[in-house]
Write a structure and sequence with these properties.
Elements lengths: L19 E8 L13 E8 L2 E5 L2 E4 L4 E5 L5 E5 L6 E8 L1 H10 L8 H6 L3 E3 L2 H18 L6 H24 L1 H20 L7 H8 L3 H12 L3 H17 L5 H7 L5 H12 L3 H17 L1
Antiparallel strand pairs: 1-7, 2-5, 2-7, 3-4, 3-6, 5-8
Helix pairs in contact: 3-4, 5-7, 8-9, 8-10
């Protein structure tokens, strides 16, 4: 796993950088580190090994995919249970000042501290897909640090902030599983309703009335799940429906109305943008291709 990006471990427990430091370690026959604390935040991503983590006097066995967050001045140390098994992890250190500057920009950067403040929850376990995405972001950051590419420092800042935001979002979603299920259920219901009522009013106001939720929440759920706005999704579905009608020789004047378009000029522009031809040109071209195919 990207051996060239690994760092040789040393016992230094202070930062050399004014903002952050990140390391990728893989060690065999490593000895225990004495109990200690930092003046900075430590984010610890456990890849593999046979170890446990003692945090503030409580011992936690670790499993691959664990995220450990240790705030400043919290005592901790790792216990090596079987030193013959490679002990692999990423370690990210961030100064209090840098972390504070992030949270001043957007409070969401600091959400990951809430479980610690509220219930002393320092460890969160990721599924394989989530942890693989996390590793990808870590490697991108480390790779950029070791590069000499144009705008390197700007890219490093973007990678670091993206990684921290990903941690916050991941932990938030772990802490709010019911909310996620409800959002997924709403999303699926919206999709089903939209596809069954393409020829009817599908405005955000109407959808909000049907599903008893705010139109802003509908927009958020849709964008999060599909990456498109509700309007964009409905437009694509209506164009697809109209396309299928046109190629079966339905009159264009009927097809666009049956597909939920109220205004021909808007329909015409959207169709041409989506398919590269006007509706009539597309219908003629398809009929010609079909005729040629049948003749052969």
């Amino acid at each position: 796993m990207k051996k060239e990006l690994r760092t040789t471990f040393n016992t230094r427990q202070y930062m050399l950088s004014k903002d952050f430091e990140i390391y990728y370690y893989s060690d065999i026959n490593m000895k225990n580190i004495v109990h200690h604390s930092h003046t900075y935040y430590e984010f610890y991503f456990f890849i593999g090994g046979s170890v446990s983590m003692n945090i503030d006097g409580t011992n936690y066995p670790l499993t691959a995919g664990d995220i450990i967050i240790i705030p400043p001045n919290i005592g901790h140390h790792v216990n090596i249970l079987d030193s013959s098994i490679p002990y692999q992890r990423f370690v990210l250190w961030i100064t209090e000042q840098y972390f504070m500057e992030l949270t001043k920009q957007f409070a969401e950067y600091g959400y990951l501290m809430q479980p610690i403040h509220m219930s002393q929850k320092y460890i969160h376990h990721c599924d394989v897909i989530t942890f693989n995405e996390l590793q990808s972001k870590v490697f991108q950051l480390i790779d950029e640090i070791h590069s000499e590419r144009f705008a390197r420092m700007a890219k490093i800042s973007l990678c670091l902030n993206d990684l921290i935001l990903y941690l916050n979002r991941t932990i938030y979603e772990m802490e709010h599983p019911h909310t996620l299920k409800e959002e997924q259920s709403l999303y699926q219901s919206l999709i089903t309703y939209i596809e069954g009522h393409l020829d009817e009013d599908l405005s955000l106001d109407h959808l909000a009335h049907i599903f008893f939720v705010s139109k802003y929440h509908i927009s958020h759920v849709f964008k999060k799940n599909i990456g498109l706005s509700v309007y964009q999704y409905i437009l694509k579905k209506r164009l697809s429906m109209c396309h299928d009608a046109i190629i079966t020789n339905t009159k264009i004047s009927e097809a666009y109305l049956q597909s939920g378009f109220k205004d021909y000029s808007n329909f015409y522009r959207a169709f041409k943008k989506e398919y590269g031809l006007s509706p009539s040109e597309y219908q003629k071209l398809y009929a010609h291709k079909l005729s040629t195919y049948l003749d052969h």
